[in-house]
TrEMBL record, chains A, B:
Alphabetical list of PANTHER family matching this protein: HTH-TYPE TRANSCRIPTIONAL REGULATOR, HTH-TYPE TRANSCRIPTIONAL REGULATOR CYSL
Record flagged with keyword Transcription: yes
InterPro entries: LysR_HTH_N (IPR000847), LysR_subst-bd (IPR005119), WH-like_DNA-bd_sf (IPR036388), WH_DNA-bd_sf (IPR036390)
Identification of the protein by name: HTH lysR-type domain-containing protein
Pfam families, per the entry: HTH_1, LysR_substrate
Superkingdom, natural source: Bacteria
Keywords from the named record: DNA-binding, Transcription, Transcription regulation
Annotated HTH lysR-type domain residues: 1-56
Residue ranges crossing the lipid bilayer per the database entry: none
Amino acid sequence: MDPHLLRTFVAVARLGSFSAAASELGYTQSAVSQQIAALEHDLGATLLLRRPVRPTDAGARLLEHAGPILLRLGAARADVARLSGPPSASVALQVTPLAALDAPALAAAGRSMPRVALTVGVAARDEVAAAVATGAADLGLLDGVTAPSDPLPLPDAGPLTTRTVAEEPVVVALAAGHPLAGRRSVRLADLADARWLDAPAVATPLPQLRALARAEGFRPGLTYSGSDRATLLALVAAGAGLALLPASVVAEVPAVGVAEPRLVHRTELVHGSLTAAARAFVAAWGH
Amino acid sequence: MDPHLLRTFVAVARLGSFSAAASELGYTQSAVSQQIAALEHDLGATLLLRRPVRPTDAGARLLEHAGPILLRLGAARADVARLSGPPSASVALQVTPLAALDAPALAAAGRSMPRVALTVGVAARDEVAAAVATGAADLGLLDGVTAPSDPLPLPDAGPLTTRTVAEEPVVVALAAGHPLAGRRSVRLADLADARWLDAPAVATPLPQLRALARAEGFRPGLTYSGSDRATLLALVAAGAGLALLPASVVAEVPAVGVAEPRLVHRTELVHGSLTAAARAFVAAWGH
DNA sequence: CTACCTTACGAAGGACGTAATTATT
DNA sequence: AATAATTACGTCCTTCGTAAGGTAG
């Protein structure tokens, strides 16, 4: 199961086309066809249905493995490169939208090191973690909601070092006229049948909400795919649905604390092995 | 980074010899030398020091990734095979030593299916999980200690289905004359400086204990590498050290409950996608 | 001098591109 | 008919084994 073949398989499945995958990967259509045939022969199973191109059950199963495998392979390569490569004078940082609220601390740490070029990018949590694991970023700043004693769940791409930089209560943001407005606190599970706002980039994604509440439900009323906090709050205020957010983000909108289960919103700084510049940056973070 | 090369690299590092790895893998010494050279060239780093053969820093880092990568690759292959292969009339089960306490339920489930051949093997938790992930076993029965709401931590080899079959309080087993004997309960962190019995196969391994207590310490007084419960209890009774165990296992020996953090000992039945025979077995488990 | 890793070299196999073929819409 | 995957085939590159060469203990 050559990673090369796996990469091609993933591309074909994603694009739904041999030829499109070929041009994306810089192969001929024929080469891609041969690679898929080789993979199918190796595994002894048909992985793709043709015309239209779409994964079989076995292929879908393989896809679930292929991503993590390719990610870990990249992480291994990056890890070795960091240990044996030349030190860099620049620091690449990736942050999730809400973690960017720590911008003041970030800017301060950046100012304290005038000699290093600092690059900041914004992405979803798994992407930030993947970037750090594969060395595309030196540092990640990511946020999420968990039980107080649990770490934020990250895709398993090897050992990453994690440091909590902020932790605060979570609240359910809601519209002013909502029946729950004014309540002191609620149990998350009691809100399973409420109308939720699905904003995976900014608020807690609904699948995670189900896992945290250990309950089904939490159906999306409206989906907001952007990453702007003000827009999200405006939508909540307009009654589009509930959103689980860190307390400090919710200002202009009523909110109710969550009593059960016990949850916190945490911002973590995560990195693999560091270059000297990145290490200094992490040290400077603590002021 | 061909998995083939990775496998060879792991073998060489483990055996500390190119020639030994060659004979284990069925290559000539020369082929192994060329494979390692190819891997080092690909990654642009020296991975092994020669004479004596031992990993460099970069090589050690790569080793941390190689195991999980190879495991996941095997899991992917097994998963595809299960979905497209022929149904089997036998069920292979792997259990951890303490999970074997569920033997009555196990035997009952086996008896209820006279037509299928049932194989049972005993191994450590990670090995059981790896066997299930790679398809070496259909079902795993494994045990461990965690927070009540957390699943047992398993090596990440893809999505496995998990079902709790037993859950009970944990206690610290100790010798009759121990100062703590008679106490109602203790906080785990308060025992960091006590003398512990390191019995990774039967009791909670000490590194895990440190993680659960979120404290350093828990130094081993004596290490018991066997997997026999009676021997373990005899050692505890003889004052060799403390052991964190499920309550039901501790009978002849004094024990103290753990108040903080809240912990349980859980036994879980875990499997990937199931053959018909294995599925019936799982169903029969519930009587 | 001896065990053991590396290098040289040739043969076998594998991978990719071009081009012809087949199959689906 | 047109679009798109497969097969045929030649070339190049890779990989392995045999055998010779180096090197550390």
